[in-house]
Amino acid sequence: MKVTFVSTVNPEPVSDDFHLRNFHPFLEISPIELNSTKKIDSLYRSRDPRYLSMLKRYASQFSDTETLVCSQMNPFHPEWLKLELGQTIKVLGLVDDPVVTYSCTLPSLFAFDAAFYVSPSYSSDLSMPDLLELNGIKQHTWMPLSQVSKSSPGVSNVLNSLDNRTKPGIYVGGFYYEKLERLARLKANLGSSLQIYGKWPKMGFSGALAPLRGTNVWFPYRVTPLSAADKIQTYLDYKIGINLHFNEGRETGNLRCYETTAYGLMLLCDKASMNSHELIYEPGEEAVYFESMEEAADLTRYFLKHDEQRIRVAKSGHLRFLNSYDSTKVMQTFLSWCLKLKLRAQTDL
Fold it and tell me: pLDDT tens digits for 207-238?
């Protein structure tokens, strides 16, 4: 089966049954101009030559696609998808939901035959499958956002490293105002027991400069980035990996949910609505969850003092990663699901 992913990264081959390739959407037009259905509609209606060139490039190079997976984002106008790719199975990836549900996902969903989601949770009233069903998508699946495989560098060293880790808690992530206040409280509470890394603007001082933008958050620290190789070695020396999601309670299952357990840290993660986090790791056995930053700080201190319990959870979480969230296995499962998909009109019969 010929599968085309909308992505800036080439998909790794997993089986001779699938011919995988990627369509890079940003060669003619910038990502910021394609980050909402409203903007895409404006480009389409105005017949923007750059946008038309992108559509023409896809049509000329990928006309034999059997399944189109908008995995990184959807750059296509939904009407164009319906008119030009009516016989192609089209799968929409809900990767940034629920943040972009009303700006990107729902306005385009009618053009797709199926969808995958990375966050099982959506709100306190609806799960992500509930939302898709309400909007007529009967073919949907969960695709864990794992980008680490058993063969990735460092993973084979994890079990031998669990007893030898010397550093306390770590948080790795980009700069978001939505997370800054929570991170500031946690860092103030834990001090040197929590190190924060990430590619933050303003040479890492964007948190410290936040009051200049009218926030009341006090974050007097510089956050430094890690290279890919440094991140692996850093992860292998830390005991606890702390994870926060963009929206408190609404989403779960970001990249760090899998990255931390892949490298043997005990995952300490915020809870999701409808207890959807429990679908990913068993609470208290494979990961530890918290409801407030104060509880997160207390749990960090507790497990730093109780190595045997921490190692037990970290080991169980790592084994769950190996069994369920190895990125190669995740992709194989997803592609097997794609083989069974039908055009939406056929599922409505």
Answer: 999 888 888 888 999 999 999 999 999 999 99
> Scanning the structure block, which residue is given the tokens 């290279």?
227
Query: Is the domain of 264 the same as that of 276?
Result: yes
Report the DSSP beta bridge partners of residue 20.
3
Tell me the sheet residues that pair with 91: 69, 114
Average pLDDT over residues 169-182: 94
Q: Whole domain around residue 113: which residue ranges?
A: 2-144+328-347
Residue-wise pLDDT for 23-53, tens only, equals 999 999 999 999 999 999 999 999 999 999 9
For tokens 């105005």, what's the residue?
A: 46
Q: Distance of CA 60 to CAs 19, 27, 63, 279, Å?
A: 17, 15, 6, 41
Give pairs for 15-18: CB < 8 Å, separation 24+. Answer: 15/332, 15/335, 17/335, 17/339, 18/335
Residue 69, Cα to own-chain centre: how many angstroms?
16
Same domain, yes or no: 251 and 217: yes
Check: CB of residue 147 under 8 Å from CB of residue 255: yes
Residues 305 and 246: their CA atoms lie apart, in Å, by: 29
* In a shared domain, residues 339 and 312: no
Q: What are phi and psi of 267, to 5 degrees?
A: -75, 125
| Measured torsion, CA atoms of residues 199, 221, 96, 2, in degrees rounded to the nearest 10 | 20
Q: Tell me whether residue 199 is in a domain.
A: yes
Is cis: bond before 98, omega within 30 of 0?
Answer: yes
Q: How many domains does the chain contain in total?
A: 2
- Would 149 be classed as within a structural domain? no
Helix (H, G, I), strand (E, B) or coil at 267: strand
User: Which CATH number do you get for residue 293?
Assistant: 3.40.50.2000
Query: Is 101 within a domain?
Result: yes
In a domain, 150, yes or no: no
Count of residues making up the chain: 349
Q: 3-class DSSP state for residue 141?
A: strand
Angle at CA of residue 25, ends 66 and 140, nearest 5°: 45
